[in-house]
TrEMBL record:
Organism field: Euphydryas editha
Domain of life, per lineage: Eukaryota
Keyword tags: NADP, Oxidoreductase
Similarity comment text for this entry: Belongs to the short-chain dehydrogenases/reductases (SDR) family.
Gene3D superfamilies the UniProt entry points to: NAD(P)-binding Rossmann-like Domain
Gene Ontology molecular function terms on file: carbonyl reductase (NADPH) activity
Protein name per Swiss-Prot or TrEMBL: Carbonyl reductase
Lineage: Eukaryota, Metazoa, Ecdysozoa, Arthropoda, Hexapoda
Length: 274
């Protein structure tokens, strides 16, 4: 029951797969590769086993409360808690810079609302000195938003989760109002930008909540770089292995005192609201 536990969501390929590989090599404990598709997840585990590594697999659909609850029951019955949790699962369709409302809703469900579900169901299992790493993006910097009202609200020191939810809801209303309204909010691929800005903002709010609760849990978000993956249609500057560098730094090497920051792909901190 006392084995350390690390969990990576959406980790059957790309950056998540490389994070799992790095954890298997350097984390002293159980490493869970999770994915919503069991067949693809088990194939990924087999690839790592062929390299002599020993990841564990569990099916996890981050958009499904019942799937998250099932995973939480499994973890609580097999382990004493969670030491490292990496929110990596995410989607983006580069070919749809102006998505429909339904497409934008699906993306935000996966990239942002899922983290709220995970927070409610899985975060109670976090150990007191756990580390949460949120995979964000340079599109998760506040400067990607074009609405001055939201720039001002999201930069507040006393920002609340309710205000972040209002920000996302306002964006979705802009999507409903048509293409020009969509573009005026955050430009092309605005749904992805809004999802990652909301995730970054949530990182800082949740860190303050953990501190207020007297917990030593760290929450940081990270831009892994422009990485060549299926999601980017093979475009990018870095390999997935290079993209895993900063997330692995936060999981394995960073001081526990590093809290509530936005970390760049080269492991230095940046101001998300500049």
């Amino acid at each position: 029951m006392e084995t350390k536990v690390a969990i990576v969501t959406g980790s059957n390929k790309g950056i998540g797969f490389e994070i799992v590989k790095g954890l298997c090599q350097n984390f002293k404990g159980s490493v869970y590769l999770t994915s919503r598709n069991e067949e693809r997840g088990r194939r990924a585990v087999q690839k790592l086993e062929d390299l002599g590594l020993r990841p564990l697999f569990h099916k996890l659909d981050v958009t499904s409360e019942s799937s998250i609850e099932e995973f939480a029951k499994f973890i609580s019955s097999h382990h004493s808690g969670i030491d490292v949790f990496i929110n990596n699962a995410g989607i983006l369709d580069f070919d749809k810079p102006l998505p429909t409302f339904e497409e934008a809703q699906k993306l935000i469900d996966t990239n942002f609302y899922s983290i709220l579900k995970i927070s409610k169901i899985l975060y109670p299992l976090l150990k007191n000195d756990a580390r949460i790493i949120n995979i964000s993006s340079d599109w998760g910097l506040l400067s990607n938003i074009r609405k001055q009202t939201w720039l001002d609200i999201l930069a507040k020191d006393d920002l609340t989760i309710d205000e972040i939810l209002q920000f996302v809801d306002d964006f979705l209303q802009h999507v409903k109002n048509g293409k020009s309204s969509f573009v005026s909010f955050a430009g092309h691929n605005g749904d992805y930008k809004v999802s990652k800005v909301a995730l970054s903002a949530l990182t800082f709010v949740q860190q303050k909540q953990f501190i207020a609760q007297g917990k030593d849990i760290s929450v940081n978000c990270v831009h892994p770089g422009f990485v060549k993956t299926d999601m980017t249609k093979g475009m990018g500057d870095f390999t997935p292995e290079r993209g895993a560098r900063a997330p692995l730094y936060l999981a394995l090497e960073a001081p526990q005192s590093l809290k509530g920051t936005f970390v760049w792909h080269d492991c230095h901190q940046v101001n998300w609201d500049d």
